[in-house]
Amino acid sequence: MAYAEGVNKGFLEQEKEGVVFYTIPAFTALGVRHGFTSRIGGVSEGEYASLNLSFKREPDSERVRENFRRAAKAIGVPAEQLVLCNYEHGNCVEFIDKRHHGMGVFRENELPACDGVCVTAPGTVAVSLHADCNALFLLDKRKRAAAVCHAGWRGTLLGILNTAVCKMQSLGVLKEEILVGIGPAICGECYEIMEDVAQLFEPEYPQAVLREGSSIHLDLSSVLLCQLERMEIPPENITLSGLCTYADSEKFYSHRRDRAKTGAMGCFIAL
């Protein structure tokens, strides 16, 4: 509990040319372009309205590409330099560079299956997609590396956060130099799970499994904070958004709330 109390609370809501997105104060202070998009400010319609970034969910790919262009412009990164993780709910994190520009957005994604992408030089924008699963931002204070990860319950349990931290440490980044942002996601109060999933988490993360009568809920943010504490990442280096995608239908898509008929938000970062 003491560790969690030392964590920074709150992303900042931004709006540029109608696009609403969220930023992390500690990242902004270092001049790093980044953001977590909302569903506001795009061209998609109906259940995908309006800033949907998922090609898998929406049949009109040109609208999705236009949404990526709008999101990139608002955040301040070149759309042609975007690289989208090729996610599969695992724990793989891949290094990306200019050879991968446009993958997953403007051309076929040839990355191996991965739920995280890491950049080590300016000129490449790492992107992951989310619609309830946790969005993770990681940044070296000295700006030698930055990463984004898609952390659902499977990836969290498999240790994608640890994989991302290890990738950065392989570059000589020290634990105390790593900043972490935990973005908008479904909160513990809204995330009801089945007994089989509860049994996977309860032995190691009992504080994250919330039982009330016959219902069971999972607080993935609590699991991630526990993992960060075990990795000895200083709590003052962490920012928790505190925003629930399930609870706010005006600003966020939610796979669980909308029964899969919905869009996805994006997590962007560039050095």
What does this structure look like?
The model has no long low-confidence stretch (mean pLDDT 97). The chain is of the alpha/beta class. It has a 7-stranded mixed beta sheet. The protein has a single domain, classed as CNF1/YfiH-like putative cysteine hydrolases (4-Layer Sandwich).
Structural features:
271 residues, alpha/beta, CNF1/YfiH-like putative cysteine hydrolases, seven-stranded mixed beta sheet, six-stranded mixed beta sheet, 7 helices
Spell out the blueprint of helices and strands.
Layout: H1 2-5, E1 8-9, E2 12-16, E3 19-23, H2 25-28, E4 33-37, H3 61-75, E5 82-84, E6 93-96, E7 116-119, E8 125-130, E9 134-140, E10 146-151, H4 153-158, H5 160-169, E11 178-182, H6 195-201, E12 209-212, E13 215-218, H7 220-230, E14 238-240, E15 265-270
Write a brief caption for the model:
This protein has 271 residues and is an alpha/beta fold. It has helices spanning 2-5, 25-28, 61-75, 153-158, 160-169, 195-201, 220-230; strands at residues 8-9, 12-16, 19-23, 33-37, 82-84, 93-96, 116-119, 125-130, 134-140, 146-151, 178-182, 209-212, 215-218, 238-240, 265-270.
